Amino acid sequence: MNRVTKEKLYIFDTTLRDGQQTQGVDFSVQDKIIISEALDSFGLDYIEGGWPGANPTDTKFFESRPKLKNSKFTAFGMTKRAGRSADNDPQLRALIDTNSDSICLVAKTWDYHVDVALGVSLEENLKSIEDSVKSINENDIESMIDCEHFFDGFKSNNDFSFSCIESALNSGARWVVLCDTNGGTLPGEIYEIVTQVCSRFPGEKIGIHSHNDTENAVANSLAAIDGGVRQIQGTLNGLGERCGNANLISLLPTLILKDRYSSNYDISISKDDLKNIRNISLLLDDILNRQPNKHQPYVGDNAFAHKGGLHVSAVMKDPSTYEHVKPEAIGNNRKILVSNQAGKSNLLSRLSSVGINVDEKDERLGDLLEVVKEKEFRGYSYDGAGASFELLAKNILDNVPNFFTVEDYSISIKKGKISKEEAFNSEARVILNVDGREIESTGLGNGPVNALDKALRGDLGIFDKYMKDLVLVDYKVRILNGGTEATTRVVIESKDGEGKSWFTVGVSPNIVDASLKALMDSIQYKLIKDGAPLPKKN
C-alpha cells in the first residue's frame, strides 16, 4: 500500500505586530505575553512578537520574552539602510541582539516604491536584501524576507520582483513571503502569480501575507496554497491595518477540516487542538474589550444558528443538511432560534434543549408560536433572550405560576453632589405580592434601573436565599423606532455564583418599564432554575 506523504504547511501569526496596527488596538506587554502563550499552546509554527526598538512596549516585550515550547519567536524589522554595512546598521543590529528564533525583514519589491519611498537604485535595494539576510544567518538566526507590495510590483516589473526573491534565497533566507500589501489583488491573480513564482523557486521556501481590502484575504491565502506556497501568515480575528489581514480563525479550520487541504497537507495543529480555537478568538476579544463577532465563520455565536422553520426541520433530522462541518470540531455549538420566522420544528428543538418535551401534535405548540410571533411584532426578540423564551413557554405549556408580581412601583431621582462632582441619586419603591403576602421594598442606586434592581431583590420573602448570588452582568438598550415616544427594548444578562449566565428581554415605550420586565424575568428564571418551591396562585 502506497502512503501519500503530506507536505508541511507552516502557520505564521502576526497578531502582535501587524494586528497591533489596527485602529484602537494597543497591546500592553502583559497582553502580548498572554496572547503569545495561548498561541504557543495552540501549536502555531511562528509567533511574530513585534518590532523591538520601534516602541517601548515591543522593546520591553522582547526583553521579557515568553518561554515558548512549540512556536518560533520572531522579531520584525526592515533590511539595512542603503549606504552602510549590515554590521553598522543600528536597527538591524538591535534585531539580531534580541536572540529571537527568527527575524522577518520587510523589503521593497515594487520598483515604484524603491524609487519613491527609498530613493535608491534597484541594485542598492537588492544589495540591502542580500547583506541583511547574510548578517542574520551569520548569527545563527533563521531569516525571512517579507516582500512588501509584491503583487503590485510583479505587475509593474516582474523581473525586478523575481530578482528580490532570488537575492534573498541565494543569500540563505529560509522564507520569502509574498505580500499583498495594498490588499487589492484578487484570488485568480494570486494563483496565477504564485504559480509563476513557484515554477522558478521552491514552494517550501515561499509564503503568503494577504490583506483584506477586497474581503478576499482568506480566499487569497487558499489560492496561494493551491499555487504552491507553504507558509501562511495571518492574524487572530483578522486584525490588521485598514481592513485587516487574513483571518487565521477562519483559515485554520478550513485547512484542518476540509479534505482538499487536510488530505494533502500537514500542519502542526491537530483536530483535537482545533477545539480550542473558539476560546482563543474570544480571548483576543476579551483582551481588546470588544464584543465578539457573532457572525464570524466557524466560531461566532451564530455560525451554527438556525432560524427558518424549513431549515430547522431538516437540521433536526440530519445537521449536515445545513451545516458544512460539525460545530463541536471548533468548540462551538448549534443554536435553534425562536422568532417570528419559526415553525414548530424550531419550537420542538428549542424546547427539547431546555428539557421541555412536548408531542409535536400538542395544540399548545400553535398557541406558543402565535404568542411568540405577536410579541416579536411588538418588539420582543427571543433570538438572544433564551431565558425569557423559556419562561414564556413554561407559562403557556405548563401553566407555571409567577413566583411574585409587582403590584405598583415608583422611581424618584434627586440631583446632588459628591465632592465637587454632580451626581444623580435614584430611589425605587416597589410593592410586591409574594406567596399571597404584600411586601413593600425600596432600593437606592446610581440610576433608576440599578435602584429598581435593588428594590426588587431587597425583600422577596421566602425567596431571599435564592437572590444572594444573582448578579446583573450587562444591560443593553435599543430604540426600536424614532421620536420621544419610541418603543424601547432592554436586554439584560444575569449570572449566578457558578458563573452560569442567562438573558432576558423587556419591551415598553417606557425604558424603566421595559427594564422592569427584563429584571422580573431574570429573577423568575433563577427561581425556576434553582428549584424554588412554587408559590400559591397570586
What does this structure look like?
With 538 residues, the chain is an alpha/beta fold. Helix content is 38%, strand content 22%. The chain is built from 19 helices and 18 strands. The chain has helices at residues 29-42, 56-63, 90-97, 111-118, 122-138, 150-156, 158-170, 187-200, 217-227, 248-257, 259-262, 271-274, 277-287, 309-317, 344-353, 364-377, 386-397, 448-458, 511-529, and strands at residues 7-8, 10-13, 46-50, 72-78, 102-108, 142-148, 175-180, 206-210, 231-234, 265-266, 305-306, 335-336, 404-418, 421-434, 437-445, 471-479, 488-495, 501-508. The strands form 5 sheets. An 8-stranded parallel beta barrel has the order 2-3-4-5-6-7-8-9, surrounded by 8 helices. Helix 2 (56-63) links the parallel strand 3 (46-50) and strand 4 (72-78). The longest helix has 19 residues, at 511-529. The radius of gyration is 29 Å and the shape is elongated. The N and C termini lie far apart (76 Å).
In short:
With 538 residues, the protein is α/β, with parallel strands linked by helices. The chain has 19 helices and 18 strands.
Strand content: 15-25%
Q: Count the helices. How many? A: 19
How confident is the prediction overall: mean pLDDT?
90
Shape label: elongated
Strand order of the largest sheet: 2-3-4-5-6-7-8-9
